[in-house]
Fold this sequence. Notes:
The chain is of the alpha+beta class. Helix content is 36%, strand content 22%. The chain has 5 helices and 5 strands; from the N terminus they run E-H-H-H-E-E-E-H-E-H.
Amino acid sequence: xxxxxxxxxxxxxxxxxxxxxxxxxxxxxxxxxxxxxxxxxxxxxxxxxxxxxxxxxxxxxxxxxxxxxxxxxxxxxxxxxxxxxxxxxxxxxxxxxxxxxxxxxxxxxxxxxxxxxxxxxxxxxxxxxxxxxxxxxxxxxxxxxxxxxxxxx
Length: 153
């Protein structure tokens, strides 16, 4: 398994995995499916991959096929003393490749990158129904501090 920084050449593989990630999240709650209506995911990821304050990492199998990706971002508020915040955004691995250390490798790559950029605080979001992911993030030391609620109208 090869874990590396993604490039624009990985766009199609990332979009494919992203679509599978969307299917996965829609299985938790159909609410996630609304994002399919508003986003051209290929254009979105093309722009994201080129931003300096973003990191994408991919996992490739022995055939150089992308089997997972993860991303992180750095956010700051200019002209304030607010701290620079790191955000773990996406993290998804295909079913057949789970529980093989890819999630841990993704976490380590992103944390290393955030530390290199002097980030002191890291945030992330996870679906409340995704118990496996909740346990994984808690294993890495994340703690609950904020609840986000939704209501359909």
